[in-house]
Amino acid sequence: MGSYGRLAARALDTDVPVMVKLAELSKSAKDAVPLGQLRQENKLSKSSVMVTAGSNQGFLNLVLSLCDVADSVVLFAPYFFNAYMSFKMTGINNILVGPSDPTTLLPDAEWLENTLSDTKPVPKLVSIVNPGNPSGICIPEPLLKRISEICRRAGSWLVVDNAYEYFVYDGCEHSCVEGSHVVNLFSFSKAYGMMGWRVGYIAYSLEAEGLLTQLLKVQDNVAICTSMISQHVALYCLESGREWVQSKVKSLERNKELLRDALLPLGEEAVKGGEGAIYLWAKLPETCPDDIEVVYWFARRHGLLLLPGSACGTSGYVRITFGMLREEECEVAAKRLKNGVEELIRDGMVE
């Protein structure tokens, strides 16, 4: 089956908006994101882009373009909560949640291969985040390629969220995969601090027959386009280049170590992540398994905001962010975190 047959019926059955047809006639619209980055840095030589109001909107565009409500989809726990919400809010309830390796937090490729082989009809879409949110891990290129090949053979779309592509540490490297069944998502929100400006983009394969037309239908009924001023700011950021971003990312390494040290009372094996993105992933003490209650307790008693693991399909864990803080602020946060962890282990959630 070609890629056209794997598009969503709800998109295929919708006429192309008249304004999109007029834009095609005029040929005046141009991509706002240069393809140089895709081809030089990400090695995506057979892809083009659609600019979206952030990569979250890009993901929603893809869900509406590729999936129907009766389809099944695949995520790996711990998963990005917004991906799960996008499926649920568009009526897709058959969400197959796969395991990650308990030691490395890497997606279980063998489970994926068996699931795509045994599930009929085959799941329409597999979604992964690299580097991981909330896991903070980097998927090695061989595993990424294996996951892509498993999806290709099964006839499933693979959607890879690369929002934290520049956020890698300790010698880890980020890589991308390409194919007619692969769609990559990118964002300006993290690397360039443009969260409120809402600029991201979809990198879709030029070999994916009919996909762009369906994406345009959705785009014309959601955001139409990212604001022009945001696109101009994004272009200016690209001119600053990867080196500017990497200098900023390097400054986060001290934050990461401060928070990792604060979590040591939980045990070294209880703390994962930190290879990529801006997150550590920590297992709570067995005596305090209710991660939501623990998060509320940390906020009330210690003035810290953590993310409950249950929001990402894995209860009993919390996500800790080491981004968005200056080093001196992170030192204060680390002291609060250590005090809270020690108290939690020693006394439980005392008030």
TrEMBL record:
Any GO BP annotation: amino acid metabolic process
Q: What is this protein called?
A: Aminotransferase class I/classII large domain-containing protein
Name the source's superkingdom.
Eukaryota
From the Swiss-Prot or TrEMBL record, what is one GO molecular function term? pyridoxal phosphate binding
| Record-linked Pfam families | Aminotran_1_2
The reply to whether Transport figures as a keyword in the UniProt entry is no
Keywords (alphabetical) are: Aminotransferase, Pyridoxal phosphate, Transferase
